[in-house]
Amino acid sequence: MNLPLNINLQQIFLHMLNFVILTGGLYFILYNPVKKFMDQRTAHYAEMDKAAADKLAAAEKLEAEHQAQLDQLDEELRQRRAESQKIAQDAAQQQLDHAREQADQIIAGAQKAAESIRTKAVADAQKEIKELALDAAAKLTLQSSNAAFDEFLNLAGERKQNEQHEKA
Amino acid sequence: MKQNKRSLILWLFLIVVLAAASVLTGAPGGESESVKTMMRDAVLHENGQVSLFGIMDVNPGLISAYVVTAALLVLALCLRIFAVPRFKKNPGKLQLLLELWVDTFRGMAEKNSPHHNKVLGPYLFSAGTYVFVSTLFELLGVQVVTTAGHSMALPAPLSDVNAAIGMGVLSYLFIMSGGVGAVGIRGVGRTLKEFSLPISMSFRLFGALLSGLLVTELVYYYITLSYVLPVIVGIMFTMLHSLIQSYVLTMLVALYYGEVSEPAQPKVKHHKKNSDALAA
């Protein structure tokens, strides 16, 4: 069937047939295998990527767990340290109290000893004073015994006179 | 596997239908009209017919098309047998070239028709390759003898108006099939909106390749222009043509295919929207 411009329906169909054969042939022989290979490779790399991502996620999770454990250990360490400090402070306070108590005891003992020393010293002093006074009195007595005796006698005489006089 | 089988059946069916159409629409033969000028002959091939295996006389473009197809299929077969099984994860130069070749058209299909592109990729691959290689084919200058006994160089297949119409109409039907496959009967409507597409596609291809052919014919017509200039006009123009035409055709097919196979958007209820806006 010929049309103007030498357009021929049969040849158009033959061209179309030719192109359909070419399309199918290229698809089955070349396009599909190459595409399949590329898709498989893409899938392979996607799988590798996913595996790497999974590993990374697992590593991150492990790291997080370790970090949590480290934090927990740090916290425990801090608590232990605080407890140790408290124990040390208590022990120090106890020792301080004990020392104060001892000091108080020492001071009290010292005060007591000092008091007894003072008492003894006072007693000794008094005794010495007494002795000195006695010695002095003795000395004084010896020196003024005559006058005193006379005076005594005078007084005694006066008293006797007074009694007689009263009786009288 | 099932998809491949279906594609194979469809392909064979298309071959049978087109073969039958080719046989049934054939002319009984007869004398062709005389050619008045060389240009008219170059355009219409009325006198420069070539015998197709002694069965009938056809335009030389059809012979070119068959030669190109055969060459491409043999090349593909060789690559399939010798190159593809040796593909590695770290590709070599040939593998890179093949992957680039396939991936260019697949990427074009996925980019322009994101919803339905399984069939589009192979079609673009085939169409782009065919247009590119068949346009370059005229550079080889393969000689044939016409029915009139003259020797002539085989032209680019698409410089034959029948080839261009075949390619344009087939692309149009392919676009329509994509529309039907994606959105049913609505796809036909969408495709019929672009009723001028097969004509524009056909004659764009035909005009572009024919213009190159005519310019070359004119250059060779004058002996003084037959030195150096054909290198630029013949080779450079042909190479540019092959690249540009394959790009234009595949891009147009991809664009229209994507447009007609786009899923239908649910209609927005304007009344409700307006009343909501008023209420706001």
UniProtKB/TrEMBL annotation, chain A:
The chain crosses the membrane at residues 12-31. Keywords: ATP synthesis, Cell membrane, CF(0), Hydrogen ion transport, Ion transport, Membrane, Transmembrane, Transmembrane helix, Transport. Pfam families: ATP-synt_B. It comes from the Bacteria. One of its GO terms (cellular component) is endomembrane system. It is found in: Cell membrane; Endomembrane system. F-type ATPases have 2 components, F(1) - the catalytic core - and F(0) - the membrane proton channel. F(1) has five subunits: alpha(3), beta(3), gamma(1), delta(1), epsilon(1). F(0) has three main subunits: a(1), b(2) and c(10-14). The alpha and beta chains form an alternating ring which encloses part of the gamma chain. F(1) is attached to F(0) by a central stalk formed by the gamma and epsilon chains, while a peripheral stalk is formed by the delta and b chains. This is ATP synthase subunit b. It comes from Faecalibacterium gallinarum.
Automatic annotation (TrEMBL), chain B:
Its main location: membrane. The keyword Transmembrane applies. The keyword Transport applies. GO terms for biological process: proton motive force-driven plasma membrane ATP synthesis. InterPro entries: ATP_syn_F0_a_bact/chloroplast, ATP_synth_F0_asu, F0_ATP_A_sf. Signal peptide: none annotated. It is a multi-pass membrane protein. Keywords: ATP synthesis, CF(0), Hydrogen ion transport, Ion transport, Membrane, Transmembrane, Transmembrane helix, Transport. It holds the Pfam family ATP-synt_A. PANTHER family: ATP SYNTHASE SUBUNIT A, CHLOROPLASTIC. Belongs to the ATPase A chain family. This is F0F1 ATP synthase subunit A. It comes from Faecalibacterium gallinarum.
